[in-house]
Design goal:
Layout lengths: L2 H13 L2 H7 L4 H15 L4 E4 L2 E4 L1 H32 L1 E7 H4 L2 H12 L4 E7 L1 H7 L7 E5 L7 E10 L1 E4 L11 E2 L10 E2 L8 H10 L6 E2 L2 H9 L5 E3 L4 H5 L4 E6 L3 E9 L6 H15 L5
Helix pairs in contact: 1-2, 1-3, 2-3, 6-11
């Protein structure tokens, strides 16, 4: 019994005909027929009935086919392991982060890390919240940086910091005269709402808005969208602090906000990478970089 015979049998069941199976495996119909005959001979079982150009699995054939899933799952894991080994040999890292972090704190992490490891190639991608939630469970991903979310099976979560959000004001807004903006200062103001969903929840913002009843014409989950609207003078916002300096340079006024609204940020990686020294180093560097934003 050989792997190629199992592939031919599986493809035949999935496609319904030997000719279609041959196309899916990029081979010829006689080759598939021979592989099937050899498999049946080696197993001493009749796996298929041939009927007018189509093949129908026998009862024994279906029982055998169901067991094949375990084989191909193991085969897929072996391929993934081989790819991981190859990628480790090439010294390549795959990183994702949410938008605000990708333009602020992630470059700081990379600056220190690459100074220590100039030989490592790094692929960095920014993603939306829902894709991020799914991607942190991808075995091909090395590490992710973003908002704290619920625990995921097989994924290690390390909380890096709990950070205070800041008040972002349009240029020349009357509240720019204040050193600290308090929630009562925002009563009736135009504020951007931060969208909550099943993946990412801004509960503290929801509670704040219930108390002060602002005008919320705009809402978003993306920090860059929020800061852009503030810069344009369309609203104010209580927003993440990571990219605040970048937006302050373009005219947005940043003030501390009281009482504090704080959210946690985490690093995520596969539990199988828990002992990987490169991942440990990345988490240590990230923890130091996030520390300066941490709630005091």
């Amino acid at each position: 019994m050989r792997m190629r015979q199992l592939e031919a049998f599986r493809a035949t069941i999935l496609n319904g005909t030997i000719s279609s199976a041959a196309k899916s495996l990029n081979t010829t119909q006689p080759t598939i027929s021979r592989l099937l005959s050899d498999l049946e001979y080696s197993l001493k079982l009749t796996l298929l009935h041939r009927r007018k150009g189509r093949v129908v699995p026998t009862q024994e054939g279906m029982i055998f086919y169901r067991k094949l899933d375990d084989v191909f799952e193991a085969f897929t894991k072996l391929k993934t392991a081989a790819e991981d080994i190859s990628r480790d040999r090439k010294q390549e890292l795959r990183i994702i982060s949410l938008g605000a972090l990708s333009i602020s704190i992630v470059p700081e992490i990379m600056e220190e890390f690459t100074a220590n490891h100039p030989e490592i190639s790094i692929i960095i991608n920014t993603t939306d919240v829902k894709s991020y939630f799914n991607m942190i469970m991808d075995e091909n991903l090395d590490i992710a940086f973003g908002n704290q979310m619920g625990e995921q099976p097989g994924v290690e979560q390390v909380i890096l910091a709990k950070v205070d959000y800041v008040c972002a004001l349009p240029p020349n807004h009357p509240l720019c005269e204040k050193d600290i903006v308090y929630e009562e200062d925002l009563i009736g103001e135009k504020l951007i709402a931060l969208d909550s969903d099943d993946v990412l929840a801004f509960h503290q913002h929801t509670d704040l808005y219930k108390r002060i009843n602002p005008i919320t014409q705009f809402s978003t989950q993306h920090s860059a969208n929020a800061y852009s609207l503030v810069k344009q003078g369309l609203c104010s916002g209580v927003l993440e602090p990571f990219s605040a300096k970048l937006w302050a340079a373009s005219g947005v006024e940043i003030r501390p906000f009281k009482p504090t609204i704080s959210y946690k940020y985490s690093a995520y990686y596969q539990e199988t990478r828990k002992q990987n020294p490169i991942i440990k180093e990345l988490v240590d560097i990230a923890a130091r970089k996030f520390k300066k934003y941490e709630t005091t």
